[in-house]
Amino acid sequence: MSIPKIGPDLPCGSPSEHSVQRSYASSHSSQCVVGHVQPVVVVHGGGAGSISKERSERVRNGVTKAALTAYSILKDGGSAIDAVEGAVVVLEDDPEFNAGRGSVLNEDGQVEMDASIMDGSNLNSGAVSAVQGVANPIRLARLVMEKTNHSFLTDRGANQFAKVMGIPETPLEKLITERNVKRLKKEKNEKNPCLTDADKNTGTVGAVALDKNGNLAYATSTGGTINKMTGRVGDSPCVGSGGYADNEIGAVSTTGHGESIIKVNLARLAIFHLEQGKNPQEAADAALCYMKTRVKGLGGLILIDRSGEWAARWTSISMPWAAVKEEKLQSQL
Ligand SMILES: NC(=O)C[C@H](N)C(=O)O
């Protein structure tokens, strides 16, 4: 089944659009009895422009592999936090996505990565920003959450912490892909480089999961935006913007134009709408519409509520996603 998106030109709140969304959400019911919860995972491969035919299969394979990896962790009794970390590691290792190995390059041709993770059972979170030479920033973010008294490490401190944790340094050449070298060159030659264009700043990855014990978690990881200033930090490592998870409400991971996402705290805004009684699709659309109308920002998000209802919604041209629930895999580019 294909899920309708809010096209960038559709007025937010268009009644016909919303009625389709609601009927999709209500057709997926699940129970929420602790100890008997059906595990659910949703992953995204970033708000994107149109994906070329040549890349489409690789992108679909990437998101489905990540979702299936996370689902098998959940089926084996693994936690939501293990599942979202596992999914994001798969996507960070895949050069098709703007995270880990496929990260876009900053104005100096360097890779600086941001990531965050949150455990909805206790609201603990961990984040890193502008981190270099690390293959899997999401693992480092989790270590910040579990091994320090802090929730966010940046730049030099994050790299030092990676060394202390025994994470081997990954040489820059391993993180830089030919595609991203070309993209940076193109962006630098552009007459009107437009960093606010969400469709150029694509490929961030994220996951949300609900485990058998009713725990929710999110993870988000990115190389940020092409040709960004050195030291620029986006929304992805910022809890409330790049994601949020609370067992009592839901879990969200976002993608899109970071500076817009930060302004509206997109993830927490979607969670707020869930708290107010909207279903996941309505909550996602309300948050994305607010960002679009209020600050002209485009993006997307994946969301699971505490009963396992989920939604994948976007205002960018596309947002590859995959989800598994009740053994059924769904995906869309
Ligand atoms: N593609 C993205 O989602 C980019 C990311 N949100 C950032 O602005 O850093």
TrEMBL record:
CDD domains: ASRGL1_like (cd04702). Residues 1-24 are annotated as: Disordered. The record marks 203-204 as: Cleavage. The keyword rRNA-binding does not apply. InterPro entries: ASRGL1_meta, Ntn_hydrolases_N, Peptidase_T2. GO terms for cellular component: cytoplasm; photoreceptor inner segment. It comes from the Eukaryota. It catalyses: L-asparagine + H2O = L-aspartate + NH4(+); Cleavage of a beta-linked Asp residue from the N-terminus of a polypeptide. This is Isoaspartyl peptidase/L-asparaginase. The gene is ASRGL1.
